[in-house]
User: What shape does this take?
Amino acid sequence: MCGIIGIVGNPGTQVATPVYDGLIVLQHRGQDAAGIVTSDSDNISHRRANGLVRDVFLERHMKKLVGSMGIGHVRYPTAGSNSSAEAQPFYTNTPFGVSLAHNGNLNNTPDIISGLLEYDHRRINTSSDSEALLNLFAAEIQRSVDGRPGGMDALGEDDVFRAVERTHLRVEGSYSVVCLITGWGMVAFRDPHGIRPLFLGKRVVGNFTERLVSSESVVCQSIGFEMDRDVDPGEAVIVRMDGRTISKACHPKVSHTPCVFEHVYFARPDSVIDGISVHKARLRMGESLAKRVAKSFKENEIEAVIPVPDSGRIAALGLSSALGIPYREGFVKNRYIGRTFIMPGQKIRKDSVRKKLNTIDEEFEGKAVLIVDDSIVRGNTSRRIVQMARDAGASRVLFASSSPPIIHPNVYGIDMPAREEYVAYGKTNEEICNSIGADWLIYQKLEDLVESCTSAGADSPADFDCSCFNGIYVTGGVTEEYLSRIGQIRADSEKEQASV
Assistant: This one.
């Protein structure tokens, strides 16, 4: 999971600062690396490195990022992407100079890389699917204008749309993309399933309409742009340097099935994704859970609903309100520890959980408490939290997950572990409960999760990618052999060995 942003500003302005500010807003989507590329009429400037946005970009770096167009990227460490050489955006100088930032995961990267070498005579420098995607898109632009005189003037919008159409034909997986073509304009496109989010914003400055594209709508509000709309699945949007904007559907068959886990965990609650308020969706998740909790417990048997901060907080509010049980903040979060879900390696995650949370003992002492979290993946965080509640004096510790059991790999950009490392894999509810040390455990039902998201937006999609819960991969082509291969790469033992 990554965060991307692109801005085309008024000619003569410098967009590096608003791109930087947008990346700060998207920092929750990736804490491993960050990068910015800017462009004026003739040249590009770039900076990318491992680390948080605030650490990668110092004042001296920002001064060198000149130009009225810019794109940025924050990355979290997916399997095999620890090197600073794989920090994005990527750049290729042929043709015209194309830079690309990508959120998602391609499932046929080896085929793309071999095809690039055999048919397009392009060799990439890393094993990154994003660099393969950049070179594929650039090769298709080259193919669109081959043999035509005129240099940059020969490149038209139809050529770029044709390149996007051909890219769709050669790519499998999830991809929300923003590109810069040096001195020409910005291109944004989304896979035909719309698995990863992509949002458009605008801002009128004098007679010029500045354009923004980002992973989440909240970026618009944070840096002073007006919210416009989502990029549709299979759609490409072109913004030229002079502000002209044109869009086109570039895939003949779309099926809008965005990733439901965005609403469970990844997206900020103040975002609206595909017409769905993330905040409302999480409230409804809690309300759905409350109906099932009420069937198992009588009034006053649960004395407090306590969230795991931060992503469990809103579902806990919905559950507490629906049941009429007091909502209490029992855990204090250290804001200077990153999101443990997206940290590489089990040892790092375990150490971070211990440093991340502390208890307010009086909220637990002598009480039967219901702890609410967004999900349970490996079970280590949940196990630690249950033990912390017991150490603080809780008489009973009940646990609720606002999403269903995770039992299948995610192949669309969320680097979940090998499935054998899921606490729910091959276990009954009682076995999972025992594994995390709770007195009682309840999971959200998948149909209730989908309904919570669907009912939280007037124009929400009809269905979602729920593959990590039900094993149904919306793009097709995900074989058991492929799942086995990525399972080996994602195993914590492999990640820890790679980090030595």
